[in-house]
Amino acid sequence: MGLIYASITISNPVKQGLEPIEARSLVDTGALHLCIPEHIAIQLQLSELEKREVMIADGKRVVCPYVGPVKLQFDNRSCFTGALVLGDTVLLGAIPIEDMDLVVHPATLKLTANPLSPNIPSSTVMGIDDIKFDTTAFSVSEGFDIAGEIEYWQSRSPEERLNAVEFMRQINYGTSYPRSIQRFFEIA
Q1: Are residues 19 and 108 in the same domain?
Q2: SS3 of 42, please?
Q3: Is the Cβ–Cβ distance between 4 and 26 less than 8 Å?
Q4: How far apart, in whole angstroms, are the C-alpha atoms of residue 64 and residue 38?
Q5: Which of 1, 82, 84, 166 has its Cα between 20 and 30 A from that of 54?
Q6: What ranges make up the beta strands (E) of the chain?
Q7: 32-45 pLDDT, tens digit each
Q8: Residue 81 CB neighbours (<10 A)
Q9: pLDDT for 119-131, tens place per residue?
């Protein structure tokens, strides 16, 4: 998979008279935070909230300023976050990506709004430990049971199978692709 970049707008919500900055950001789901170069923090007059020790990609630990608040905008999504002042490029990490309910499409190398919630961001507000499960409705097994998978999908109606395929297609390719499954044949 190649590198994914996205155009985002970064602004200071406390000092609204300042012009927002349009930036090309590297999308990195392996990183947690928004990282911005020092010149952006200076232009937006972002206040240093504290120092944070972070581990960078090469395994080294560095101490850097944590500034904020920062308002991010991407398409029809926005969020408020803090930013680490680090590096020479804007890096969009998992926390703001999740906060704006964005998804990475590996096939198209694009960041987009979650196709399951295209108009407003959705979020999870309770942890898995807070959910009460009806344990008679499912079972937990060790390893991957291909025979069980085949049996499960064969027990489903064709409509349920196609809905599951369509759901996976939207997760992987988004809603910009045709909303139907393409049929093709191979002559052997």
Answers
A1: yes
A2: helix
A3: yes
A4: 10
A5: 1
A6: 5-11, 21-27, 34-36, 47-55, 61-74, 77-85, 90-92, 102-105, 110-113
A7: 999 999 999 999 99
A8: 17
A9: 999 887 766 566 6
- Per the listing, tokens 């399951």 go with 116
**Residue range 30-82, pLDDT digits in tens:** 899 999 999 999 999 999 999 999 988 888 999 999 999 999 999 999 999 99
Which helix H or strand E contains 167, and what residues bound it? helix 158-173
Residue 64 placed within a domain: yes
Burial degree of 37 (CB within 10 A; 0-12, 13-18, 19+): middle
Q: Is 153 exposed, middle or buried (0-12, 13-18, 19+ CB in 10 A)?
A: exposed
Q: What is the C-alpha to C-alpha distance for residues 59 and 173, in angstroms, rounded to an integer? A: 33
Q: Does the residue 141 lie in any domain? A: yes
Give me the residue label for tokens 């101490």. 63
Number of structural domains found in the chain: 2
Structural contact between residues 39 and 45, judged by C-beta atoms closer than 8 angstroms: no
Range of the domain at 58: 5-113
Which residue do the tokens 């489903």 mark? 156
